């Protein structure tokens, strides 16, 4: 099959390599307004061919499209792909604003082709096993889920400016993981954000953004989610999920790359070196995610993360953003009421 790939920045370049390594993919048609980004991909990947624009890419008659461009252009690109009836993978979050995301939900519901939203933890073997442990009942009733995403260093200022802020950009991975692993929806949130006084205001405060954040989630079947995020975890990239039930508890992400230094005398675990970036910690998940997307393109399976499904995560991020601004708990129903009037 021929897959189009729109956007060749940090994640798009990785997706280009991943797609090209799949036997089922014969050609990857790529585009990015930054010519050097396209040249770098076509220079190292023999299966890749560059075109000048997303329009030219859709005109090339691809079987499926992967949108890995900046968050603020997801909606226009997804709308264009759906108008052509092309099966589409769109990186998280669904769109730059919740209003656009709602519109994408409506378009996807009417579209002839499926959409898969990119939440890679759904394809990480440890997260899959944690979800299985919830579903097979071995944990008993789940009361607490702790989900952590700590980035070692902030993304570039230009990325942050269009990211939607730490809740919509980073915490969404945790909100989605808690929903997906527990099978429960987020009912209400209480979020706080903090900004490192040494961090450049133009990167954070000027956009109402934060360097660190924590969110408490009340889930639909009574579980409590505890979500931690930061852009400044210098020891490494920390992605973890603990699920605690009344009969047992499990954790995903407790490998030797966990970026924590134990202080107990005699304890030498984790052996290290720490994970340094999402690419190394989640490489296997990205491969499985895009291999799955190719099966969606081939019509073999349904989308494993539809726009409808991903909207549960988008609403939680919207509620968390408002909660941190107003310093109070916010229900998902409240932000839905505000947005859907
Ligand atoms: N699933 C994950 O774990 C994960 C990880 C990182 C990023 N992301 C998501 O992927 C997206 C890209 O993130 P990134 O880190 O690669 O950002 P980036 O800033 O490194 O790259 C974005 C790229 O999009 C290109 N672009 C901008 N407008 C475009 C347009 N109209 N058409 C085509 N290309 C366009 C830019 O030139 C740039 O090369 C974001 O939405 C982000 O949320 C997901």
From TrEMBL:
Residues 127-245 form the GFO/IDH/MocA-like oxidoreductase domain. Keywords: NAD, Oxidoreductase. GO terms for molecular function: nucleotide binding; oxidoreductase activity. The keyword NAD applies. Pfam families: GFO_IDH_MocA, GFO_IDH_MocA_C3. Residues 1-119 form the Gfo/Idh/MocA-like oxidoreductase N-terminal domain. InterPro entries: Gfo/Idh/MocA-like_OxRdtase_N, GFO_IDH_MocA-like_dom, NAD(P)-bd_dom_sf. It comes from the Bacteria. Belongs to the Gfo/Idh/MocA family. This is Dehydrogenase. It comes from Janibacter melonis.
């Amino acid at each position: 099959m021929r897959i189009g790939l729109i956007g060749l920045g940090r994640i798009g370049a990785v997706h280009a390599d991943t797609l090209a390594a799949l036997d089922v993919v014969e050609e990857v048609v790529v585009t990015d307004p930054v010519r050097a980004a396209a040249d770098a991909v076509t220079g190292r990947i023999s299966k890749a061919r560059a075109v000048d624009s997303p329009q030219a890419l859709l005109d090339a008659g691809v079987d499926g499209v992967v949108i890995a461009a900046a968050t603020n252009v997801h909606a226009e690109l997804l709308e264009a792909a759906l108008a052509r009836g092309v099966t589409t993978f769109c990186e998280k979050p669904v769109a730059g604003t919740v209003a656009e995301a709602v519109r994408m939900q409506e378009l996807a519901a009417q579209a002839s082709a499926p959409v898969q939203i990119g939440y890679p933890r759904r394809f990480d073997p440890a997260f899959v096993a944690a979800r299985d442990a919830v579903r097979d009942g071995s944990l008993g009733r789940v009361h607490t889920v702790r989900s952590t995403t700590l980035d070692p260093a902030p993304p570039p200022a230009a990325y942050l400016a269009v990211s939607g802020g730490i809740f919509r950009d980073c915490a969404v991975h945790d909100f989605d993981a808690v929903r997906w692993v527990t099978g429960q929806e987020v009912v209400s949130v209480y979020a706080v954000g903090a900004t490192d006084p040494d961090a450049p205001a133009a990167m954070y405060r000027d956009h109402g953004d934060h360097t660190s954040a924590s969110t408490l989630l009340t889930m639909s079947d009574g579980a409590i989610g505890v979500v931690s995020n930061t852009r400044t975890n210098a020891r490494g990239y920390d992605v973890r999920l603990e699920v605690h039930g009344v009969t047992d508890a499990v954790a995903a992400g407790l490998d030797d790359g966990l970026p924590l230094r134990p202080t107990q005398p005699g304890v030498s675990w984790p052996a290290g070196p720490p994970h340094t970036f999402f690419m190394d910690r989640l490489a296997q998940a990205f491969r499985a995610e895009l291999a799955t997307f190719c099966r969606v393109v081939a019509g073999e399976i349904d989308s494993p993360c539809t726009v409808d499904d991903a909207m549960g995560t988008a609403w939680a991020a919207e509620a968390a953003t408002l909660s941190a601004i107003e310093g109070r708990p916010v229900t998902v129903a409240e932000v839905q009421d505000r947005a859907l009037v």
